[in-house]
Every structure is written in structure tokens, then in C-alpha cells.
Design brief:
Elements lengths: L3 E6 L3 H12 L4 E7 L2 H11 L3 E4 L8 H11 L4 E6 L2 H13 L3 E5 L4 H7 L1 H12 L27 E6 L3 H10 L7 E6 L3 H14 L3 E4 L10 E4 L5 E7 L2 E7 L11 H11 L4 E5 L8 H9 L3 E5 L9 H7 L5 E3 L4 H15 L4
Parallel strand pairs: 1-2, 1-3, 3-4, 4-5, 6-7, 6-12, 7-9, 8-9, 12-13, 13-14
Antiparallel strand pairs: 10-11
Length: about 350
Amino acid sequence: MKQTSVLIVDDSAFVRRVLTEILSSDPSIAVVGAAPDPFVAREMIKTLNPDVVTLDIEMPRMDGLAFLEKIMTLRPMPVLMISSLTQKGADVALRALEIGAVDFVAKPMVGLSEGFAGLRDEIIGKVKAAAGARVKPLSGSKPKARLVPGPNYRSSERLIAVGASTGGVEALQELLTAFPSDAPAILVTQHMPALFTATFAKRLDQCCAVSVSQAEDGERVLPGHVYIAPGGFHLELARNGANYVCRVHEQPLVSGHRPSVDVLFRSVAKAAGGSSVGIILTGMGKDGAAGLLEMRQAGASTIGQDEASCVVYGMPKAAHDCGATEVELPLNRIPGQVLHHCQAIAGRGVRV
């Protein structure tokens, strides 16, 4: 079995040692080097050609974000950010994911030895997922044409539910910026740390025609709005009389996650049934597959992101394999297909 080779880049000798011990404890991973800053790392990448790089953000001589931009522009490769996470740093971390980092692990704030020990499985799992990820060269952003509003979109009877994980930051931005301002209401569960989601929603709101916000418990679900599950909380759709509302709660983890895509999809199957469209995007694992199958069985239209356009073809594959998806499409074709489905829903007069 070929080992996944990893280069660790961090200015702390202690962190370099701990990460080396954690990753080396898995026989399928080989740590081939550890660099104290991006300048040393640059030469080691040329010499060692690692499969994955773990990268800190705050480092001397060149910060990790600037180095990541150089990597993704000149030599695209899987990068896992491992850095301290604060509310102030959430925006920087999200920027790293937008540039092309595959995923992010937050360093423990206190008790580094014990904290890193508790992160062992997460770090190893994300390194392995990164090794199989599809990375693309960083290119200048191009203006995207938004879909033309249609006469049948504005109705609270139609809903879109979206689930994503690894690679979802970029995928959701591409997906949501394509929707017109009068699109049906959209509920989103993205696996993301608690400090990320409010910042993520704010960044999306600045670039989308639809209004994007972090979901609040009891909030009415309206057309032209996107509701992001808060980190650490499940998001569900519920009925309150004639209206749809968000339910946000801290019930136990489902499918290993909170928020869980399965929780969202199952609630949409129950509350909206055939008036809904379910979309499962790039991500590691199988969260969302069972819930999407329930949506399809309830009469919803279901779409999976195809393998070629996924960063990690895990969640869509699990959904495909269990028969949850009606069709798989490249990411750039999903918005048009979704709105086509919503017009069809209006045409057949679906009610719940």
C-alpha cells in the first residue's frame, strides 16, 4: 500500500513534533519533512514532492495565506490548514478555503498536548481525505451570470435543501451566487466549526443576489433567502401553521456531525415532501445520503454533484450508491436544474 507523504509547515517546533507523532502513528501516512516557515517549505516541496501539506496561517517571513496563494497558483496540491482559530481569524481561515485549501483543523487553545491528542482522528482523517482531493489552480475570479428570475419562483411552497462538507466553501459560493434574488428559500448544512458560520454567511451575503444569514430558531423561512446551519447546531425545517420555520437545536450528533445533513434532509422530507429539491455536494463521509433518500421517497427531486467537479466525492457517492440521487450533475449545471424542478413543482400544483 502506497503511503500518503506529508510535509508539515509550522513555526512552532513543538507543533511540528506533535503533528509528526500523530501522523506517523498511522501506517498509511509518512511524514517526509517538517518546515519552520514557507521559505524552507518551498524548497522541501520541490525536493520531496509530498502528497499533502499541512500549513499554519501565522508564521514569520511569510504568512500561510500568502504561501497558500503561491502554492495554488504555481504548484496546486492538497493543503490542510492547521491553525489557531479565533473569531478574528475565522475570516482568514475561510479565505484559505476559498483559495483552495482542502480543509481546516483548529489547533487547541489550551493544553496543547492533550488537545492535539484529542484531534488525532480528525487530523489523520482529513489528511487522508486531502490526499484524494481534486485541487484546481487558483485563477482570477470571473463574473458569473445569475439565472434569470422566473414568474413561478416566488412561493413559500417550494424549498431547496443543500448539504456539503469538505470543499463546500467554494462549492456553495459557486452554487448560491448563480441563484436570482427571487429564488425559492434555501436551507444549507455545511460541516463547519462554530466560529465559521456567521462569518461564512456574511461573506456569501455580500456576493449573492439572495439574502444569506445564519439560521435562527423559530425564524420564518422566506423566498429569496438562504439559511445557514450554525456551527455546533442542527438545522431542521418545520411547519408553523401555513408557514415554514427554522428549528435550530443541540440534540446529539447524527452521522458523526452537528450540524448534520441527514437531520436537515429528513426534516425537509417530512415538512415539505414533493415541494422540495435536495442537493448533496462535495464532502467526506456519508452524512446526508440516508436523509436524501428519505426526501426522494417523499417525492422530492434530488441531485448529487458529480465526481469530476467534487473536491472529495464521498457524500455524493454515498447518496448515489444508496439510490438517493435522481441525477448527478457538474456543479455549474445544478442551479439551472434546480430552478427547472421548482417550475415543474409549481406546474403540477404540489401542496403538503
